[in-house]
Specification:
There is one protein chain. α2 runs antiparallel to α13, α5 crosses α11 and α7 runs antiparallel to α8. This protein starts with 20 loop residues before the first helix and ends with a helix. With about 375 residues, it is mostly helical. The relative contact order is 0.17. The chain is globular and about 80 Å long. It contains 16 helices and no strands. The N terminus is likely disordered. InterPro entries: EmrE-like, PUP_plant.
């Protein structure tokens, strides 16, 4: 019988072993690798996003506060044209022309599923937004004419609850207890000023004019809130783009339409014929009159850039909350520049406006923390599996 030879199994070093391809794929899933790459890329882009948000906030608050003060200065020093006050709120759009050359629309791939809206659709949107903006500017000019600047600014805070309502209907904005608290508190803040009209009336601001100014300002606030919500809806459903070029176009063309409407209003109302006499009678001089109008137009445009940028990057409600943050600043500045009275009711109204703003900011903080926690849990689940 042949003797069987025992088989000896030689140990193979771990470093020389060939790992099957399937085993490698199990250790490092491709989806997990791609997810990590996306997260790393997004974290790098966050710095640029926060930088843009900060710039937009500065433009909105700074432009809005300075333009409101100059608008009050125009009326206090002899200006009386409501259509001119409305015209300067949108006539600064020519300063946007250089931006068309620096920020061009990115070229889209032919395979992109997004379809660009037709030119006719865009022109109709620009026309509708321009007409709405012209009417809103005229209402604001009446409110600014018949109200002290501090009261005008604080009543304008009512645009926040209006915006919350329109955002709920048009933009599917989620309502929480903190957001509802913000809406109610800011509404009470504006209502306090309405019942305090007797202490505000004087020879310059009679009771009848105060009522007209209050109604016009509230109507302008609601129209402005509708305008913001419709803009957000347009960015998401129609243009489907949040590029800076799209933001500039959505500001330039409606402002052009609104300015043309105001020019027609100047001629139809007959105010165009008295502008020369108004300039000559301006207490600070003709040069000051022209510079007041020019800088008011420029500052309003800067504020609009900030507002449009925040709508495209975040939401219309967030943009409105930031604008509301600037409103309590104006009455404080008006005390120094126009010697407005800051009585107890107005102080309480200011505190409530700040309280409403902080409630909304805290809700944003909670939402952001929850979102980060959810993403972290999803990454951990992907890694373990």
């Amino acid at each position: 019988m042949a003797q069987s030879t025992p088989q000896v199994e030689l140990p193979i070093p771990e470093s020389n072993r060939q790992i099957p391809e399937d085993e490698t794929n199990e250790q490092i899933p491709e989806d997990e690798t791609n997810e990590k790459k996306k997260i790393g890329k997004k974290s790098n882009l966050n710095y640029g996003w926060w930088c843009r948000i900060f710039i937009y906030i500065i433009c909105l608050i700074g432009g809005q506060c300075a333009a409101t003060l100059l608008g009050r200065f125009y009326y206090d020093e002899g200006g009386n044209s409501k259509w001119m006050a409305a015209f300067v709120q949108s006539s600064g759009f020519p300063i946007l022309i250089p931006l068309f050359f620096f920020f061009k629309s990115p070229k889209k791939n032919d395979s992109s599923p997004l379809e660009k809206p037709s030119k006719f659709t865009l022109y109709m949107i620009y026309l509708a937004f321009g007409l709405l903006l012209a009417g809103d500017n005229l209402l604001y000019s009446y409110g600014m004419l018949f109200l002290p600047v501090s009261t005008f600014s604080l009543i304008s805070a009512s645009q926040l609850p209006f915006n919350a309502l329109f955002s709920l209907v048009l933009n599917a904005q989620k309502f929480t207890a903190l957001i509802l608290n913000s809406v109610v508190v800011v509404t009470i803040s504006a209502a306090l000023l309405a019942v305090n009209s007797e202490s505000e009336t004087s020879e310059q601001f009679s009771a009848g004019k105060y009522v007209i100014g209050f109604i016009c300002t509230v109507a302008a606030s609601s129209a402005y809130a509708l305008y913001l919500s419709l803009l957000e809806l347009t960015f998401k459903r129609v243009t489907k783009s949040e590029s800076f070029d799209t933001v500039v176009k959505m500001l330039f063309y409606p402002s052009l339409v609104a300015s043309c409407c105001c020019v027609v209003g100047l001629y139809v109302s007959g105010e165009m014929s008295i502008l020369t006499a108004e300039m000559n009678g301006f207490s600070k001089g003709e040069i000051s009159y022209l510079m007041t109008l020019i800088w008011t137009a420029i500052l309003w445009t800067i504020g609009w850039i900030g507002m449009m940028g925040l709508i495209s990057e975040v939401s219309s409600l967030f943009s409105n909350v930031i604008g509301t943050l600037g409103l309590p600043t104006v009455p404080v500045l008006a005390v120094f520049f126009f010697h407005d009275k800051m009585d107890g009711v107005k102080i309480i109204s200011l505190v409530l406006a700040v309280w409403g703003f902080l409630s909304y900011v805290y809700q944003n903080y909670l939402d952001d923390s929850k979102d980060k926690s959810t993403k972290s849990e999803d990454i951990e689940a992907t890694t373990t599996h």
